[in-house]
């Protein structure tokens, strides 16, 4: 059935479907960035497709190619038990112009996936309700999953939040024993006498 999904997409969107291929039971459609959200909505709403579950969304960096990034989304139909992979290509050689429409209005679960993709690759999701870093602190410079990001790069140090030292890492009933020790005494148990 999944191969029919590719036919449905080509029938509905024509030239916006740039490529399709099937390999080992995985169907893939590479689509125009301008049609990304419309295709996602079609796959969710058309009863022949019934893609109610967005499983994953990420990007792949191809620094020696333009467009540089492939945004990749995996979709699944629980009722029909078929799946499809959607890809779109965005961004120039420097990573500029890596922009595609958000699909948060189609699947709310896309929220953190898009934020993670923005945080680690720098792909911007137009229309996202709260596009900001998810895993890294706001002052972090760059996007560490880009292949041109230097692993030895030094990031700016930022001071602890005021009052942070008063916040315990764990409460009494959770965490590791060393966490409970810090919570009770305010200092770690080093095993050495004071």
The name CATH uses for the topology of the largest domain is Beta Polymerase, domain 2
Summarize model confidence as the mean pLDDT.
87
- Please name the CATH architecture of the largest domain: 2-Layer Sandwich
**What can be said about the biggest beta sheet?**
5 strands, mixed
CATH class of the largest domain: Alpha Beta
Task: Please give the share of residues in helix.
Answer: 10-25%
pLDDT < 50 runs, ≥5 residues:
none
Counted by DSSP, the helix tally is: 4
Q: What is the H-and-E element order?
A: HEEHEEEEHEH
Largest sheet strand order = 1-2-5-4-3
N-to-C CA distance: 69 Å
Total count of strands: 7
Strand content: 15-25%
Q: Rounded to an integer, what's the Rg over CA atoms?
A: 22 Å
- Shape, principal axes of CA atoms: globular
What labels describe this entry?
194 residues, alpha/beta, Beta Polymerase, domain 2, 2 domains, 5-stranded mixed beta sheet, two-stranded parallel ribbon, 4 helices, 7 strands, 24% strand
Give a brief rundown of this model.
By secondary structure, the chain is of the alpha/beta class. The chain has helices spanning 2-13, 36-45, 110-121, 177-185; strands at residues 17-23, 26-31, 53-61, 69-77, 82-90, 99-101, 124-126.
């Amino acid at each position: 059935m999944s191969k029919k999904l590719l036919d449905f997409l080509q029938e509905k969107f024509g030239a916006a479907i740039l490529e399709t291929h099937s390999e080992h039971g995985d169907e893939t459609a590479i689509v125009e960035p301008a049609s990304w959200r419309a295709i996602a909505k079609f796959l969710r709403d058309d009863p022949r497709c019934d893609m109610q579950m967005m499983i994953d969304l990420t990007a792949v960096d191809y620094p020696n190619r333009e467009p540089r990034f492939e945004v990749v989304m995996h979709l699944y139909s629980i009722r029909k038990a078929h799946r499809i992979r959607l890809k779109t290509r965005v961004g120039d050689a420097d990573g500029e112009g890596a922009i595609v429409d958000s699909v948060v209005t189609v699947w709310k679960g896309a929220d953190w996936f898009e934020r993670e993709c923005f945080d680690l690759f720098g792909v911007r999701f137009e229309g996202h309700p709260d596009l900001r870093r998810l895993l890294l602190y706001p002052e972090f410079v760059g996007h560490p999953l880009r292949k041109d990001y230097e692993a030895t790069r030094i990031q700016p140090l930022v001071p602890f939040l005021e009052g942070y030292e008063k916040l315990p890492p764990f409460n009494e009933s959770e965490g590791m024993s060393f966490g409970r020790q810090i919570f009770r005494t305010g200092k770690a148990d080093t095993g050495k006498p004071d």
